[in-house]
Amino acid sequence: MSEPRVNELMEKIVSLCKRRGFVFQSSEIYGGINGFWDYGPLGAELKRNVKELWWTSMTRRRDDVVGLEATIIMHPQIWRASGHVDTFSDPMCDCLLTRKRFRADQIELQSGTAYHYTGARDTAAGRAVTEPYAVLLPAGKPPESARKTASEFYRLRGLAQPELEGERMEKVENSQRFNPDNGSLLTEPRPFNLMFKTYVGPVADEDNVAYLRPETAQAIFVQFKNVADTSRQKVPFGIAQMGKAFRNEVTPRNFTFRSREFEQMELEFFIQPDEVVEALCGTVATPSGPGHPGEPQRNWGWQMWHQYWVEERIRFYDAIGLPRTTLEEYWQKPEELAHYARATVDLLFKFPFGTQELEGIAARSDFDLSQHERFSGKSQGVFDEDLRTAWGKLPEERRQELSGRYHDARLKYLLRAGVPAEQAAKDAREDADGLAKGQYMPHVIEPSAGVDRLILALVANAYSETTTTDEKGKTEVRTVMRFHPTVAPVKVGVFPLLKNKPELVAKAREVHGLLRGDMLAFYDEAGAIGRRYARQDEAGTPFCVTIDFDTLGETPALKDTVTIRHRDDGRQERLSIAALKDYLIARVR
């Protein structure tokens, strides 16, 4: 069977999500609201399963990561320290004709003939508009199309019967200055801050401005000291958080991939600077090649930790049904990195609309804690008694070397942060001298994933179509959602063979009750058994259990057994009811 066309495939996925209750348009009965989505019964279970698996893998199966759940609205100064108030923006432009808004860097490249006008005059009313305007026409379109669009532009500016002035033509190649929908000139790009603004308190003025958080990470940084003190964790250790974030995207698109309200799963893993590792261990371990570096060691530098978390995250995706073969690793080039980042790896997935980012794993140096220390005036560094002891045993030459490297790194940060050179030099020297006292600023590795993007990737990866032919030769295309059992919304469907046989229904209800406390089990008695299987295939249910007459003892050897049907290959097997729960739990958790 040939693969569906990209747009056709995405349309099928969106349709399935609505039809089966995975995802609904928010506020649909009122016409919807762009960039916001609601998760229906199956979607809510799928999302909850994914989040629970992430949380378990990050915190409950590790001794070196603890959790945090912070508020959505925080002190506005946090977003100044993080740079979001000043720099968290996209280049935005508007269509001069329709006022539709575009992200300037995402407008498709266009070529053709641009028709420029210096203005227009309404001779009957004696009015003129001198505002310049332009329209881009693709090859083959007559000039009259441009004049028609330009006339509409000047009519919107008050001219009843505009007479265009100053027409000139220009060949244009690969331009992003025109609306791809109608050819109209766009405004010059300008920054558009993506944070949602609100007010805290009864007065809506600038003194009470607050923001809905655009990411969950900053709460981790500002609570770092409290968490470290109360959890009795020692660097290296991590703080994990899941939660809502909000970005006022200029152009939400691609279904749930880019939304204005979304959820994140983020880990900030705090590590020792390489200079501290070297002082404690004598050497700093660096990667010897690709692949997982193994269990963490005391002498790991930032490169080892970064590679470790890249591989850990790939292992997680593989465990929930996105094998490494479905992912791409993109190592950002030096010119693409944020100014504070030493390295960033984007894990990409091939969506029907293109290969896009699922998660980023960044080595963020000590930028975040340093910024919050500078803006709050509260120390964010840590004290390490082992470092103070080890430092005292180092030869003087070694101390000078490590102190000098640490000084240079801190000075570079301070100068980039805008601290005056004299003050920066003084602060960097104090920071470097702090090593002898066992004091340093932790660095951080940040794996940051979007829940909604991951859900969409799982749905896209699970979607498949099978063609079946019945005994009469009639063919039917059926949708099967091949979710990994651990993330599947419904784990098992339970059916009586016939709904008009009370003894079968009673036994099926009994089996359903046996399972439902340990997993989401769905009871269904409506329609032919084949149709019930098909409905569960479309929901992604990995197992279906059928109670038939053999279950009741028609064949004595099969009494109190059921038929288990496997979604992916249609295979069926008999199993005793007594063994059923353990059998399923071992496969769906």
Describe, in plain words, how this protein is organized in 3D.
- With 589 residues, the protein is an alpha+beta fold.
- Among the domains are: 43-70 and 214-381 and 441-454, BirA Bifunctional Protein, domain 2 (2-Layer Sandwich), CATH 3.30.930; 94-191, no CATH class; 490-588, Anticodon-binding domain (Rossmann fold, 3-Layer(aba) Sandwich).
- The chain contains 17 helices and 29 strands.
- The strands form nine sheets. The chain has a seven-stranded mixed β-sheet, sandwiched between helices. It has a five-stranded mixed β-sheet with strand order 26-25-27-28-29, sandwiched between helices.
- Strand 18 (343-351) and strand 19 form a beta hairpin.
- The longest helix is centred in the C-terminal third of the chain and has 21 residues, at 396-416.
- The chain is flat and about 90 Å long.
List the topology elements:
Layout: H1 6-20, E1 23-25, E2 37-39, H2 41-60, E3 65-67, H3 76-81, H4 84-87, E4 89-94, E5 101-103, E6 110-117, E7 119-122, E8 127-129, E9 133-137, H5 143-155, E10 163-165, E11 168-175, E12 190-193, E13 197-199, E14 209-211, H6 217-222, H7 224-231, E15 237-246, E16 261-271, H8 274-281, H9 302-319, E17 327-331, E18 343-351, E19 354-363, H10 367-376, E20 382-383, H11 385-392, H12 396-416, H13 421-433, E21 439-440, E22 443-450, H14 451-462, E23 463-469, E24 475-481, E25 492-496, H15 502-516, E26 521-523, H16 529-539, E27 543-547, E28 561-566, E29 572-576, H17 577-588
Parallel strand pairs: 3-15, 25-26, 25-27
Antiparallel strand pairs: 1-2, 4-5, 4-12, 6-9, 6-11, 7-8, 7-10, 13-14, 15-16, 16-22, 17-18, 18-19, 19-22, 20-21, 23-24, 27-28, 28-29
